[in-house]
Amino acid sequence: MEKKPFVTLEQIQEIVKTYPTPFHIYDEKGIRENARKLKQAFAWNKGFREYFAVKATPNPYLMEILKEEGIGSDCSSYSELLLSDAVGLKGHDIMFSSNVTPDEDFVKAAELGAIINFDDLSLIDHYAKLAPFQDTMCCRYNPGGEFTLQNEIMDTPKDAKYGMTKEQLFEAFAKLKAYGVKNFGIHAFLASNTVALGYYPKLAGILFELAVEISRKLDVHISFINLSGGVGVAYRPDQEPNDILAIGEAVHRVYDEILVPAGMDDVAIYTELGRFMLAPYGHLIAKVLHQKHIWKDYAGLDACAANLMRPAMYGAYHHITVLGKEDAPCDHKYDVTGGLCENNDKFAIDRMLPLIENGDYVAIHDTGAHGFSMGYNYNAKLRSAELLLQEDGSVKQIRRAETPQDYFATLDYPGLKDKK
Ligand SMILES: *Cc1c(COP(=O)(O)O)cnc(C)c1O
Fold this sequence. Notes:
It is a single chain. The protein is α/β, with parallel strands linked by helices. About 30% of the residues lie in helices and about 25% in strands. It has two domains: about 30-280, TIM Barrel (Alpha-Beta Barrel); about 280-400, Lyase, Ornithine Decarboxylase, Chain A, domain 1, CATH 2.40.37.10. The chain contains twelve helices and 19 strands. Helix 2 (about 30-40) runs parallel beside helix 9 (about 245-260). The longest helix is centred in the middle third of the chain and has 20 residues, at about 200-220. The chain is globular and about 70 Å long. The model has no long low-confidence stretch (mean pLDDT about 95). The chain binds pyridoxal-5'-phosphate. Pyridoxal-5'-phosphate (PLP) binds near residues 97, 192, 229 and 274.
């Protein structure tokens, strides 16, 4: 599918008068439309709820938009819990799916009344010393082995640090029951960034069967199944984006096959999507500062891997549009780089693009999730601003760019105090 940016060169030329590049910009209209489609896809399930994975894009203004669409938050750390609290998410609006969890995180999650998802059996007795159990608690499952779809290996749970074995899960539920817990959730995350209709239905089948077995053997009430994240986006133009309506319908069929005949037709489906909710609705906008032509042709941007780590970290593909040259032939080959002293600081390698000139603006696609949030300060590079393109076309700054003083904020060193 052709990948078109949601902003034009004219819009960016206007925006940079107030907010210089680089910045991440998010498309409110796209975010809301997608959130509504997800809700529609699971409308058949009366308890359905999406818990946005805050780690993907921890910005309260975006969380607020999602909250208006009925979406809660999935937190993995103390500060993410604080963000959720600040946007007014309360109690069961929050899912706490952490691992290697510090005590203070558990205590904060309990204080907010969040649904706590235990990553390990050993954490249950540990938690008992920290905070009271609530009526509803959740456990994370790791089936081991390889996770395959149509004979293709999607991921290898046996090598993943998350979740409990089946035996441990049974023991965990028995323990929680003894602690007085009334309602139980089962959670698993078995493959990341899937662009295949089959992932959620296959995962749902595994968890639904497990739910039936647990509820029979231990006589406990399973109130929800959390399918977690993993529904991906089409980063590449040759990929077909996920059809969430078809995915919802396929999960519905598995639900009717397994849970309904077992008399468990009150089980709610939860999701914890991050990437799917926001990735396509964010661009990293940057300006071409310098080019060089040595053994290869390089276009150097004012953004770098500190603003978007995925290409450097995973070799991930992010589509790039040279704004204003959407219809020009892609007949030049570039490495598109940032300015870090790291040769992996490349947004694209051997990418065919239109002829680039210094001063051109580029939109790097699909940076709305796991983009800004994975940013870092290597080379003393500063984090960029985040902007929101609102539904009426106006732009709101939802996080300002860092200044050197932000970078020095944790240093108590006199000579740095007023440096600009
Ligand atoms: C990262 C994560 C998610 C979100 O994953 P996406 O691939 O962004 O959908 C959901 N749940 C948990 C526990 C996670 O760690």
